[in-house]
């Protein structure tokens, strides 16, 4: 029995699959869901059985069709700001998770749904996936990170085009502009996400986690400071058993047995 009304978590062989589960509302993000999401991702951070997280949406039509418009409709300015802060807080926890996060996007990823996908490290879309930031058509702007993360993912010009026009794009166009890492047939989506997760899991877990951290933290730093972060973290990994094992396995011409130590 799960303690969450709006989420499902399955864990198998070091892969967690977290499903946003409000299919009757196209998995729209309301306050209850965001509060549960905050709680579950904090638990995932320290869950030793999960080294890669896959995020997906329940049902066949939507990954997440955005923040819940019915809940937002009557909000005051302060309530709107609080809601945006809640979404940003949760998505920052997701993007800062020690584990790599793969978004497996199985349909509409609109507004807050695309913003959730942008908080992931890797985005794999099904052929029927649809992307967009429809907020300006609702009289608001993106509030869960897209004004900042979309331009970092696809460049300023394309981010402005998508946000200012609010137009939908299909999976092919999303891949062409670098929003998606891969496009796959809908029925193969989770298998492809697991395949990517297993590639990651075949490497030294601490090295994978620190690589993610240094890429993300260095991105917003001046280059020289970021390169110093890289040097220090590179050095730190020589203190791990897995560095000794990885290099010895290469020298012995055998597969490495990593211990996450
Ligand atoms: N919020 C609340 N309910 C939503 C929703 C949303 N974002 N998206 C879909 N739903 C609900 C619909 O109201 C409908 O509910 P009922 O059955 O009770 O009428 C149900 O989900 C099914 O949706 P549709 O009947 O509309 O399904 P469709 O296949 O005709 O269309 C869709 C699908 C194109 C995704 C359409 O539902 C849609 O455009 N949804 C809204 C998308 C959107 O504008 N998202 C941005 C929200 S703003 C935001 O996210 C702000 C932010 O940055 C934080």
TrEMBL record:
GO process terms (BP): fatty acid beta-oxidation
InterPro entries listed in its UniProt record: ClpP/crotonase-like_dom_sf, Enoyl-CoA_hyd/isom_CS, Enoyl-CoA_hydra/iso, Enoyl-CoA_hydra_C
PANTHER family per the UniProt record, alphabetical: ENOYL-COA HYDRATASE, MITOCHONDRIAL (PTHR11941:SF54), ENOYL-COA HYDRATASE-RELATED (PTHR11941)
Coiled coil: none
Recorded family membership: Belongs to the enoyl-CoA hydratase/isomerase family.
Single GO MF descriptor: hydro-lyase activity
Biological source species: Candidatus Atopostipes pullistercoris
Protein's name in the database: Enoyl-CoA hydratase/isomerase family protein
Keywords: Lyase
């Amino acid at each position: 029995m799960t303690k969450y009304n709006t989420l499902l978590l399955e864990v198998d062989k070091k892969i967690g699959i977290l499903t946003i589960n409000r299919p009757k509302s196209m998995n729209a993000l309301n306050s209850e869901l965001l509060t549960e999401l905050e709680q579950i991702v904090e638990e995932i951070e320290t869950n030793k059985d999960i080294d890669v997280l896959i995020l997906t949406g329940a049902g066949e039509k939507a990954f997440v069709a955005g923040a819940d418009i019915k809940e937002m409709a009557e909000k005051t300015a302060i309530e709107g700001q609080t809601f945006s802060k809640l979404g940003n807080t949760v998505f920052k926890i997701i993007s800062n998770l020690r584990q790599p996060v793969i978004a497996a996007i199985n349909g509409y990823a609109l507004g807050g749904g695309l913003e959730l996908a942008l908080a992931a490290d890797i985005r794999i879309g099904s052929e029927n996936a649809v992307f967009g930031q429809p907020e300006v058509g609702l009289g608001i702007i993106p509030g869960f990170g897209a004004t900042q993360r979309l331009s970092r993912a696809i460049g300023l010009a394309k981010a402005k085009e998508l946000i200012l026009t609010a137009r939908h794009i299909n999976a092919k166009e999303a891949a062409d502009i670098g929003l998606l890492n891969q496009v796959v047939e809908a029925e193969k989506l989770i298998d492809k996400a697991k395949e990517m997760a297993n590639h990651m899991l075949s490497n030294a877990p601490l090295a994978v986690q620190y690589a993610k951290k240094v890429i993300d933290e260095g991105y917003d730093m001046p280059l020289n400071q970021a390169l110093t972060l890289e040097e220090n973290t590179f050095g730190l990994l020589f203190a791990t058993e897995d560095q000794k094992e990885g290099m010895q396995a290469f020298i012995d011409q055998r597969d490495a047995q990593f211990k996450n130590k």
